[in-house]
Every structure is written in structure tokens, then in C-alpha cells.
Amino acid sequence: MRRFLERHRAILPCALGAGLLCSAAAQAQQISDEVVRIGVLSDMSGLYADTAGRGSLEAVKMAVEDFGGQVLGKKIEVVWADHQNKADVGATHARTWFDRDGVDLIVDINNTAVAVAVNNLARERGKMVINTGGASDILTNEHCAPTAIHYTYDTYALANGAVHGILAQGKKDWFILGVDYAFGKAMAANVTEFLKEGGGKVVGTTSHPLNASDFSSFLLQAQASKASVINLANATSDTVNTIKAAREFNITPKQTLVPNLLFINDVHALGLRHGQGMVFTSGFYWDRTDATRVWSRRFFEKMKKMPSMIHAGGYSAVTNYLKAVQAAKSDDGATVARQLKQMPIEDFFAQNGKVREDGRMVHDMYLVQIKTPEESRYPWDYYKVLSTIPGDQAFRPLSKSTCKLVKAS
After folding, report:
1. What is the model's pTM?
2. What CATH architecture applies to the domain 32-153+289-363?
3. What are the φ and ψ backbone dihedral angles of 229, each rounded to 5 degrees?
4. Is CATH 3.40.50.2300 what the domain over 156-285+366-394 is classified as, yes or no?
5. How many Å apart are CA 134 and CA 141, to the nearest integer?
6. 126, 333 in Cβ contact below 8 A?
């Protein structure tokens, strides 16, 4: 018996529950591969590259650097890949990262089709995904996952603010011109939902290919409808080119153009002369507070442009992910996701933020209007913030969620 005790005395304290030292040691071993790896999966070369892309990568690097480059004494590594706006390409990168390269978190994913594929992989592997770039609210409904968080904005919140803001002007009949893939269809569905609730109606719809070269036929359909509002359910260069073509066809000001998703980078490319007066919803504006200005100017020094809401959301998401890893003492996907859902999210990007059980990060959104050239006082001074939309009013309520993670009330 004495030999048995001597041979096993090293493990007896744990076995007998003397537990504090052993528990601490066990927790310290919960960082897989001794490294926390973050993958930035974005459009690095296509039409969404300016609003996400290299800027997203830089924002994530800034977050890691500001956190100290380590968490729980372990190194933080950042890798990146270009999904090329193709679901199969994005899924291949994500699968390789999860299965071979030990990536613990994937962020950005600024394409809904890619994001759905990555959410499915995250669900299967129990890995973390924080979507800071994709828009469709199907990511927190039928495609929700226990370890997937939708962070920056979604089609519901964007449509919510824009539709109610324009309906208040008495413009009830709308024509929807959207991009022909998952994001455009989700946006059109959300716009239609809010119009019905607010007493408006859709008088026509049309869809164009992603990264279209000619918008004339689509705009002529919208013009022929005589709708008060032409609603743009597209994004980035597609939105910019639609607006420019509408000006050329003299569609405005007879019909009001309402973009659902417009980034500050798009306004910069469009110019205030073409964009002035447009009202839409945004999750971030660099010149809104002292805190947003301080961070945005740091970003500008590195990228020579002001950050989009995707860039700011990426910094915030990674910072709060690392805080959750530190608090949970683990980089296990399910563990960190649970921790994030217990933490308040409060920083220069997110006010009154919280992650719900469906994975939606709820935070304040902003109804903004593009300034006239005369109102703009300095470079990138583009928005007037008309109102703040509280998060619990901006995003789809849990009572309307179709996510299977949401407990029936």
C-alpha cells in the first residue's frame, strides 16, 4: 500500500479534490496548440474589398496589438484569405483553417453565401465565427449556430431604419432594385416586411447580377413603375454605379433613391454631389464621438482612408473575443461563445451591446443623411446623424426569430 501511495502521490491531491492548484493547471491548458489563431476571411480583390478586405485585416491586427499580442500568456496569430465572393472557395479556406491549421476564430466573411457555408462548418466543428461583414439576417435565423455571432449590422436593421425614415416623409410606393444573390433577396424581403407594417407597398422588383456592368435596363423598369422610391438592395460598387446611372437618366429627383447598405467608402467614391440628401442606416460613423475619431484617425494613418463599419466592427469583435478567451481561460469555441453571451459589449463601436442566444450582437444603430458639398467642412465629413436607433428597436426581436437556439417563450 505504501508503494502504491508513493507511486501515485503526485495525482492524489487532484483525485481527493484538493483541487485549486489542479483546476488552475487544467484551465491553463485550454489554449489549443499554445496559440490563439484568428482568420480574416474577406473579399481581398473584388467589389467588396474597399469596404472590408485589407482594411479588415489591418483592423484585426490593431486589435491584437492593442491587446498586447498575447492572451493567457499565449501568442495571438492572425492569418487571412480571399474568399473571392465564392461560397465554395470560402468554405475550402474555412475547412482548412479549422481542420488543419488550428484557427480558433474566423471574422469578416463579407458575403452572405460564403457566411452561410462558414456558419455550417462552425456548427459542425464547434469553432467560433464572428461575422462582421455579411449582411443577411438569415445568419441569426435559419442558419444560426451555437458558436456563430453576427456582429456589425444585418439586413433587418438596415431596412428597418431606412424604410421607417422614408415612410415618415409620406412616400409609400416602392420599387426594389436588388442584387441577385442571398444578400439582395434577404434585403428585399426585409424591406417588403417593413413596408407592409408601415402602410407602404412594393409596386415592382428587379434583380441584377453581382458586379453588374450596366444598370440601364433595371433602372428603366424602375422609372416606368413611377414609384415614389427606388430602393437599392445592393452594395458597394453596385450601389455607387446604380446611383450614378440614375443621375444620368434624370430619374432623380422625380423618384427618390434609397440605398439600404451604403458605406462611407462608397460615399467617398460617389461624391457628395451625387449622394447629397440620401438617408440610410449605419452601424458606425467615424466622426460621431471623440472615441470614434481617435480610433478612426489611427486607422487612417495606416490605410489612408476612414474606416467602414465593417472595419470598426472587426476591431471591436476581435477585442471582445480576446476578452472572452481571457475570462473563460479557454479558446474552445462553445466555451468562448457562452462567455461572450454573458458579457456587455461597450466600446467606441458598440453602445449598449449584448450578444443574444441567437448569436445576434444587438447594439445602437444610426439613421444618417449624406451632407451637401457646402455642409462638408473637411475631408470625410460626409454624414449628419439624424437619430440613434436603440439596439432593441433596430434588430429583429427574439419573438420573431426562427433560430432553433431560441427557447420558446
Report:
1. 0.90
2. 3-Layer(aba) Sandwich (3.40)
3. -125, 135
4. yes
5. 14
6. yes
